[in-house]
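Input record, target 12 of the design panel.
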């Protein structure tokens, strides 16, 4: 059975704006193990669900999507934001 992972999108380190803040991402967990290709040596599998990434505006929309399609899901909340405020001069102490 396909298991979905619902997580809150974190803001990237290089992102200063709030454009995609608060979005929720749905990804599918891998069902088949990766195996090396005998010709190239690259890892791969026949499981294409891991390539699917769907974003939702709210957590409830993502949960409703899974329940409507009969998917099991795991909720992963975003890590709390820790801000360290310091002066620029503190870098040279």
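The sequence produced for target 12 reads:
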């Amino acid at each position: 059975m396909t298991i979905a992972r619902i997580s809150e999108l974190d803001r990237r380190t290089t992102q200063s704006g709030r454009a995609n803040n608060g979005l929720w991402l749905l990804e599918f967990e891998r069902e088949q193990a990766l195996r090396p290709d005998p010709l190239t040596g690259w890892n791969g599998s026949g499981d294409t669900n891991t390539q699917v990434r769907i974003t939702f505006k709210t957590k409830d929309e993502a949960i409703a999507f899974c329940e409507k399609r009969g998917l099991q899901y795991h909720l992963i909340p975003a890590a709390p934001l820790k801000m360290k405020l310091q002066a620029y001069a503190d870098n040279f102490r």
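The two ends are 56 Å apart (CA to CA).
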